[in-house]
User: Fold this.
Amino acid sequence: MKLLALSDKSCRLRAVPIRWFAVILLITLWSYSIQLWALTLLQESAKEYQIKAVYLYNFSSFVSWNKEAFANDQAPFLYCILGDNPFGTQLDLTVHEENVEGRPIQTKYLTQVEQITGCQVVFVAPSEETKLQAILAYLRQRPILTVSDIPNFVEQGGMIKFYTNQRRQVRMAIDPEMLQKAGLGVSGNLLRVSEVIHR
Assistant:
């Protein structure tokens, strides 16, 4: 009987670490699944901004700037990001060694709207949403294409807004009147593939 009791006790002692091991394993798997979910979201975000970087670059083929938009004939074509950069290196990679009508393309990262001197395209990052009204007021009627993915960007006075449809595809909304007021020409091809907004 003592032997049986000892055997039962040893079984119970062995069962404790097994139970704890199961708990630890579940926590580890749960933690891994959270990390995997976060990584998936990160990858989706990277892909989204990779697409937006390509769109930004291609806008230079469908929008035209007068000579007055450049300091001189040798001035580069500047893509400027205002606020926290959501593109990572995607925009730099997209425009690397490219040009717009012979002008070399450069990227510039801004913390304040007053630094926009020389910019032809300004992407207003989501981090600037609370300052959007002041930013757009400062940029209004300058020969600068304003782009963002801030909700209601076009409705508040911006020119082109990125948004995602129900299929998670990147699409554009555009206000051609705002481009015209800034002295920018816009191709009908761009209007045909965009949601045109009239305010």
